[in-house]
Amino acid sequence: MPLIEVEQLRRVYASGRREVEALSGVSFQVEAGEFVSIMGPSGSGKSTLMNVMGCLDRPSEGDYRISGQSVSQLDTAQLADLRGGEIGFVFQTFNLIPTLDARSNVEVPLVYRGFGSGERSKWATQALQQVGLQDRADHLPAELSGGEQQRVALARALVTRPSVVLADEPTGNLDSDTSESIMRLLQDINQRTGVTIIQVTHDEHMARFARRIIRLRDGLIQQDEQLDPGAVRA
Length: 234
Ligand SMILES: Nc1ncnc2c1ncn2[C@@H]1O[C@H](COP(=O)(O)OP(=O)(O)OP(=O)(O)O)[C@@H](O)[C@H]1O
Ligand SMILES: [Mg+2]
Hints:
Layout: E1 4-15, E2 18-30, E3 35-39, H1 46-53, E4 61-66, E5 69-70, H2 76-86, E6 87-91, H3 102-112, H4 117-130, H5 146-158, E7 164-168, H6 176-193, E8 196-200, H7 204-207, E9 212-217, E10 220-226
Parallel strand pairs: 3-8, 3-9, 6-7, 7-8
Antiparallel strand pairs: 1-2, 1-4, 4-5, 9-10
Helix pairs in contact: 3-4, 3-5, 4-5, 5-6
The chain binds adenosine-5'-triphosphate and magnesium ion (MG).
Magnesium ion binds next to α1.
């Protein structure tokens, strides 16, 4: 069974008296362990697709299944549970809480899931080790570089051991060297842990760190390309 199944997905936004069709019938599957880049011009539906895959939004038509569970059959609370259990999010703007140090930021999803402080600290320390930031655990976000802040955000996404990490332009606010090191880290974590990674990027070079590129245009898949695993990346 594929981890992710998107079937004839349509998403129409009602904005005033007009309707905007952001996704016009998109179908694809993602197997557990894949690393996928989603590309496409501004407005082509990338974030809309990520929101549906992240169980933050529902399709207008068609179906979305993650680990075999169809989101259309779940109520809002069940959707939130599914999201908390299966999905880790990484954002362009990191979205760290400025008053919490790195470790406490990484613990946040565990607070929501009701873990005690001992376990939270243990898991957060492990996640910070995964991203190579164990020696920055007590730094506030303002005391970290942009790349380090994004690594903390990645640790926060990984700490619940999700089946998939969804990253919407994770390197959009980083310079190109820092972006490459984040991409190498994503590759490394994907290969070491088997966590599925789906990222949106505007940058062809960053996209090619993945093993597959799905290109959207006007709410449709224009191309779904498997990259040669033997090709030298970076
Ligand atoms: N909440 C909303 N209400 C109405 N229209 C929306 C809403 N969100 C997105 N849209 C429209 O849906 C289309 C797809 O938007 P989406 O944010 O998915 O694009 P995108 O590919 O992520 O673009 P970008 O690269 O600029 O982030 C756009 O035309 C946008 O204006
Ligand atoms: Mg977007």
